[in-house]
Design brief:
0% of the residues lie in helices and 46% in strands. It is mainly beta and 228 residues long. It has two domains: 4-106, no CATH class; 121-227, no CATH class. The termini are close together.
Length: 228
């Protein structure tokens, strides 16, 4: 599956129990690319999503975090009646992501002067400048990795896998993309949402400046690996 095909894939983040059991209903962190016609594996999502979600969406031309409601419906069960597939629906519909992370509140979200709706940026083809509130943020592919920096600090966001000889570009599924950037946690610093694609699936991550460790610009707030 190509990186562009990611836009047609439903992704959901949920915290799984250590033994891989069904996620607790109040453990979900992020849901994105919701499409009720593309169900999830029942082990990946909560069957009864807890309240308190926020939709990251555009309203009147501006990005906002709005109160959201998620619901799940079991669409397939195994021979013992156990859920196998779950369809997720959301209100409001069509948001870029539905978030349930501590510290996020509803309201307008400041973003760089960039169009993110259905316009993900390839992070491996060339450097990408993301100016925001006087800071010169930048993604740069270098030394077989994607780096994120602000001119004084930088951190590795992803590794770059080289395309093997004999594999056509349109057959190479591996890549890194910026899906969105803005100040989700409202601390005046940039937060980003990225996607990594591979042969067998995709990983979406929300990175928050408020989660940054020593020497970092952002820290992972939630991630998910989803198989195709």
């Amino acid at each position: 599956m190509t990186r562009r095909a990611l836009a047609a894939v439903a992704l959901v983040v949920a915290a799984l129990a250590p033994d891989g059991a069904q996620a607790a209903d109040d453990d979900w962190k992020i849901v994105a690319y919701v499409n009720p016609e593309l169900p999830f594996n029942a082990r990946e999502v909560p069957l009864h999503p807890a309240p308190g979600g926020l939709a990251l969406t555009v309203m009147n031309g501006l990005w906002n975090l709005m109160p959201a409601t998620l619901s799940a419906q079991v669409t397939d069960r195994d021979g013992k009646g156990r859920p196998q597939a779950v369809a997720i629906t959301a209100t409001p519909a069509g948001a870029l992501a539905y978030l349930r992370l501590p510290g996020l509140t509803e309201g307008k979200v400041d973003t760089p002067d960039m169009r993110f709706r259905d316009n993900e940026r390839d992070l491996e083809a060339a450097p990408l400048a993301v100016p925001f509130k006087g800071a010169a943020y930048r993604f740069e592919p270098r030394d077989k990795a994607v780096w994120f920096g602000d001119g004084t600090r930088r951190q590795k966001i992803a590794d770059i896998e080289e395309r093997p000889q004999g594999v056509a570009p349109d057959e190479w599924a591996h890549g890194s993309a910026l899906l969105w950037a803005g100040d989700l946690d409202r601390d005046g610093k940039l937060d980003v949402i990225t996607a990594l694609t591979g042969d067998d699936g995709a990983t979406m991550c929300v990175w928050l400046s408020s989660k940054a460790g020593a020497g970092q610009l952002v820290g992972k707030a939630a991630c998910m690996d989803r198989a195709y």
